[in-house]
Amino acid sequence: MRYRVERSSIGDQPIVEIRDDAGRRVRIACRGAALVAFEMPRAGGSFDIAAGHRDAVDIVTRPGSRFAIMVPFAGRIADARYRFEGAEYDLQPGAAPGQRESRHGFVRDAVFDVAELVASGGSARATLRTSIRGRPGYPFAIDLAVSFTLDAAGLALEARMRNGGDRPAPCFFGWHPYFRVSDGSADEWLLEVPARTLIRTGPDLIALEGNAAYVPLADAPALDFRRAAPIGGRILDQGYTDLAADADGRIRTRLIDPKTRFGVTVWQERGVMHVYTGDTLQRGARRSVALEPMECMANAFNRPEWSDAVRLDPGAERLYRCGVQAC
């Protein structure tokens, strides 16, 4: 199998393309390091499992945060405020009540540098880099490198987060991909999430305080997908934790078309899984499902039980791996 990786563009937006001789093509925008497409041969044609951005305008305006890299936090931070190492921080100083919302980190609009393009007989890899410096309410320094590797197994992401400052920093990784397994809707598809526990939230989608946030899935049967089950009309914007790994150490969440048995598997090595059926999207509502591997739960900066997981010491580096397979 021959692999190729090269620079290209969509309109005025620079991208990286990874291809193989089997007909698979991955397109990644340098803005936000957002996956634009993951096309593969299927039924005599080409099928894109990624419900990504359509054009250069989408890449800039990022509707739905499609395939966003979320660093130094994923999901929402309650009231855009958090406490770390005994100090209080405000991510939206001066914002009025009702307008305070901070989500998905700081790199969605960053134009990543292309640090490496490597192709061999068995894979191809693109590495994109950026840094976080001088953000309101976040006086920390994070250097981020995200590698996308296409090989026979699928597409793997490897995120390296390094604290480039002189004091500990709160930091964790998340990915916001949307996938599809047919031209139909989420109502028709099966979902499997190997979780033991549901993360319960309030109307603001912030997890309840303390242990009230964690509900055994045995007590929430309507949201239990430990065995593959139809999504149907269920509206999901839901976090899952206590994820069960397979024998190889990978945790696998699956989306399946029951008509063809074609499926997409999102794997991760640790953390939580957030599932979103896209009901509030202005374009393509319920035509794809976001399967979001996250190193920590949303609002983890404010959760004592996650304090060790988010802490990154000066000069230290943390690695997070996840990826996608389709068959």
What report would you give on this structure?
The protein is mainly beta and 327 residues long. The protein has one domain: Distorted Sandwich (Beta-galactosidase, Chain A, domain 5). It contains 2 helices and 28 strands. The chain has a 9-stranded antiparallel β-sheet, with no helix packed on it. The protein has a 6-stranded antiparallel β-sheet with strand order 17-26-25-22-19-20, with no helix packed on it. The mean pLDDT is 96.
SSE diagram, text form:
Blueprint: E1 3-10, E2 13-20, E3 25-29, E4 35-42, E5 45-48, H1 56-61, E6 68-70, E7 76-77, E8 81-84, E9 87-90, E10 102-103, E11 113-119, E12 123-132, E13 142-151, E14 154-163, E15 169-170, E16 174-176, E17 178-179, E18 190-192, E19 195-199, E20 214-216, E21 229-230, E22 237-243, E23 251-256, E24 263-268, E25 272-276, E26 289-294, H2 307-310, E27 311-312, E28 317-326
